[in-house]
Amino acid sequence: MTRNVVISGGGTGIGLATAQVFAAHGDRVLLLGRREEVLRKAEVPGALTHAADLSDVDGVRGAARFVAEELGAVDVLVHSAGGSGRLEPQVEREDPLDLVADNWKVNFRINTLTAVLLTEALKHRLAEPGGRVLFLSSIAAYRGSGSGAYAASKAALHPYIHDLARELGPHGITVNAVAPGYVEDTDFFGDAMDEARRERLIAETSTGRPGTPGDVAATLHWLASPAAGHITSQIIQVNGGAERGH
C-alpha cells in the first residue's frame, strides 16, 4: 500500500537518504525545507516539494495547507530539519553574553521549534491507526556537544516525544526518535571537521567506522513499518556504540 510520507529537511543528508528509501519502496514523498533550489535538485523519484521556514508559524501554516491539498492524510512524518546553526546568518556581537543568547535561540529555533510546530500542525492528519511520527535526536543529547546549545535543543525533543506517544498511542500512532552519532556525507559539520577529529569520533565507536545517512534512513524506515507497530516513546541509538564510550 502506498503511504504518504512527509520529510522535513528532505533535500540533503539524512533527510534525503530517508526520502530515497521510502520512495524506493513505493511511497509518495513530500520534501519540506527552506531552500527551494536544494529541494528541486534532490534525487527522489516522484517526490513533491514545498519550500518553507518551519521555525516560522506562517511558514508551517503554508506547509500544512500544501499537505492538505496535495496529500490529505499523512502516514509517516519524519523530522530531519535542523543543524548546528552553521547555515544561519552570522550576526556581529561585541558582548559575549549576546553571542551565547543568539546561539541558544538559533539552536532551539531550528532543531526544536521546527519539529514541534510541524507536528502540531499535522497531528490531526496522521493516519489512524498506523501513523508514524519520527524525530532526529543526536548522540549529543546524551553526551553534550561542546557548546551545550545544540545538545540541549535535541534533548528537549525527548520529553515532547514521550508526551506525544502517550497522546497519540490510543489512536494507533507511534512516536519515536533516532539518535545518530558521527555521520559522514552530510552538511552538518561544514569546514569544522579535520582528520584528527574524524579519527577520534570513529575511534569512539565499537564498529570502527563512521555512520552513513543510509544507516539512519534504514532505521527510520523500519520504525515506520508494521514490524515496529508496538515500539513507541523510544530513542533508538544509531551510533556504532559511541554513546557508551570506550
TrEMBL record:
Keywords attached to this entry: Oxidoreductase
Entries under CDD domains matching the protein: SDR_c
InterPro entries: KR_dom, NAD(P)-bd_dom_sf, Sc_DH/Rdtase_CS, SDR_fam
Domain Ketoreductase: 3-205
Pfam families given in the database record: adh_short_C2 (PF13561)
Coiled-coil residues: none
Record-linked SUPFAM superfamilies: NAD(P)-binding Rossmann-fold domains
A GO molecular function held by the record: oxidoreductase activity
EC number(s) recorded for this UniProt protein: 1.-.-.-
Family assignment from sequence similarity: Belongs to the short-chain dehydrogenases/reductases (SDR) family.
Stated name of the protein: SDR family oxidoreductase
Species in which this protein is naturally found: Streptomyces carpinensis
